[in-house]
Amino acid sequence: MTEFWLISAPGEKTCQQTWDKLMMATTRTNNLSTNNKFNIPDLKVGTLDVLVGLSDELAKLDSFVESVVKKVAQYMADVLEDSRDKVQENLLANGVDLITYITRFQWDMAKYPIKQSLKNISEIISKQVTQIDNDLKARASAYNNLKGNLQNLERKNAGSLLTRSLADIVKKEDFVLDSEYLVTLLVVVPKTSYADWQKTYETLAEMVVPRSTNLLFEDQDSGLFSVTLFRKAVDDFRHKARENKFVVRDFQYNEEEMKADKEEMTRLSTDKKKQFGPLVRWLKVNFSEAFIAWIHIKALRVFVESVLRYGLPVNFQAMLLQPNKKNMKKLREVLYDLYKHLDSSAAAIIDQSAMDIPGLNLSQQEYYPYVYYKIDCNLLDFK
Fold first, then answer.
1. Is the pTM value of this prediction over 0.85?
2. CA-CA distance, 72 to 137, in Å (whole number)?
3. Which family does it belong to (predicted)?
4. What stretches of the chain adopt beta strand conformation (E)?
């Protein structure tokens, strides 16, 4: 299970007692969840009206940062194309896997100094993640352009003989070049019509050079034949060829152009390889940064919400539950029984969809008598 429930409840006589009660109710007898204490430092509380405003801002910031974390993870999967199974091992936070990071969460005092006000800390996170989002857009756009151009060229060099580039198939000696009167055409002939072609090509127009056809290349369905004729017979030959289901390709042998195409392909391929390593490193580092920021926002939200709900002085225990998948419904019931005394109005669990009151921002979260936020570490949406 990659889903976690981050909850808080007020300290009984001590916070340890709150913790012990939860452990007793959820693990000792019935294995409903695996639990860890979630350590939130002594943050500056500030005034009540600031906390109320901050509660809404943090909900928006939470959604934004989660979306950036997912974008970075998804783009990592896109960039790693063929080795998507390696994506998970690149999605780390502070060098450890995400579940380890969350279950052993420690506030990063250096990045988010707790002497600062809660509003300042949320602004530091907001700036940091906005920067990551902007950088990702720029880097992804540059790499995608490169990849797109390369794919277009590769597509040109693959596919059916009717559409693909012929530059890497033909050689100079396949053509009569620099002749005032003669020209070599390239014709795509279905495999089933080879015999017809050999029988008829000399008679499709006047002035076709006898025995001038050669098979240059084959794919699954057709072959590419060369044929030499007088320039003035070309239009007539094309027309008659089409009637016989032979397709004359528009192709002129131009060494300069063909060389330029090859060089462009090599350049794009080299550029892509050059950018790949640094891009993956950037994604790893910034995924870690964004994910860490996201979990710090969850910590801020639990702190703010717990103070608003349970009052001052600050006295609550934050707890991280990893529900056992089969027992999620049962776990909800046990938590409800444990904490329903905290809020009589939550007797009917309010579902956001059932109750859309303007101005009541439950931020798409269900409402419970305890503070609750979900953290889902499954960040990849594989197509």
1. no
2. 10
3. Belongs to the V-ATPase C subunit family.
4. 3-10, 33-37, 92-93, 96-97, 182-190, 214-218, 222-230, 247-249, 316-323, 371-376
